[in-house]
Every structure is written in structure tokens, then in C-alpha cells.
Design a protein that fits this description.
Layout: H1 11-57, H2 59-72, H3 81-89, H4 92-99, H5 106-119, H6 122-131, H7 136-160
Helix pairs in contact: 1-4, 3-4, 3-5, 4-5, 5-7, 6-7
Length: 162
């Protein structure tokens, strides 16, 4: 059989098409990236600053002392209660901002992130659930407890396999 090779595209047309796409899409991408950065920075920078201020005022130390028994079940220091609460009440980005002010190991960050990702933004999502006819409080408690339990199990598994 005599097969014909596939036709090669016209390199000049594809080059000019690529340049046109870049001229159109690059400014859009940069603008979108900067908007995303600003959106994240608005949550993370104030949370980081708040965590530093609370640390300087001794609030984190006091909170850490009170939260230590529960947080130790997840292999976390008591001070990890600050990003946990911020994540549960506000959002993941506020929690990340607060986490950066703490000196946590990779394992502790993973455990804390798991709890936060399961139980984040409870106030807003609870209100949405109420509007949908569900129990916002009940579902919020379920998510918060599930997050803490999952974090505890993850901590035990990581300790067992490390």
C-alpha cells in the first residue's frame, strides 16, 4: 500500500495564530492571576498579621494552654487551635495565613489541613444550608467533628507508618 504522509500545517499561519493567541490570552491570564492573588492576599495577610499580634499579646499561649488536651489528640500543639478556628469560622485562606505564623512540622500541617478542609467556612455554608431547608447547625457540627476525627486518624496513621 502506498500511504501518503499527513500534510504539514503551514508554519507561517500557525506562528501568526500563536502570536495572536498570546496577544489575546496573556493579558487575560495576567489579569486573572493578579485578581486571584489579591483575593487570596486579602484573606491571608490579615490572618497572618492577626496571628502574629495574638502571639505577641500572649493570647495564643493562653489559647494553646486551654486547647492543648484536644489538639494533642491530633498530634498538634495547642497553638494550632488558632488556624483551626479561623478555618472553621472564616475560610481556608485565613487558616493558611495563621498557620504560617506557627512553627509546625509537615505532618502537623497535613493533619491540621485535613481538619480545616473538612470543616471550613461553617458560618457561611451553614447559612446556605438553612436556606436550602437543612439544619445548618447540625451539618456544621457534623463537619467540625468529622474534621477533628479525620485529623486524629490521619495523625495515628502517619505515626504508625513513619
Amino acid at each position: 500500500m502506498n500511504e501518503q504522509p499527513p500534510e504539514l500545517p503551514d508554519l507561517v499561519d500557525s506562528h501568526s495564530s500563536l502570536l495572536a493567541s498570546l496577544r489575546r490570552d496573556l493579558p487575560r491570564g495576567i489579569r486573572s492571576g493578579l485578581e486571584t492573588f489579591w483575593s487570596l492576599a486579602k484573606a491571608m495577610i490579615p490572618a497572618y498579621a492577626l496571628a502574629l499580634v495574638l502571639q505577641k499579646l500572649g493570647v495564643i499561649t493562653a489559647l494553646a494552654h486551654v486547647a492543648q488536651p484536644v489538639m494533642s489528640l491530633m498530634g498538634l500543639p495547642g497553638s494550632a487551635a488558632v488556624p483551626l478556628v479561623l478555618g472553621y469560622v472564616l475560610n481556608v485562606y485565613a487558616a493558611i495565613g495563621a498557620m504560617t505564623a506557627l512553627h509546625l512540622s509537615a505532618q502537623q500541617i497535613t493533619v491540621l489541613a485535613l481538619a480545616i478542609l473538612i470543616g471550613h467556612n461553617l458560618l457561611v455554608e451553614g447559612a446556605v444550608l438553612r436556606k436550602a431547608g437543612m439544619s445548618g447547625l447540625g451539618f456544621g457540627v457534623l463537619r467540625a467533628v468529622s474534621g477533628l476525627l479525620a485529623a486524629g486518624v490521619a495523625n495515628l496513621l502517619m505515626k504508625a507508618f513513619s
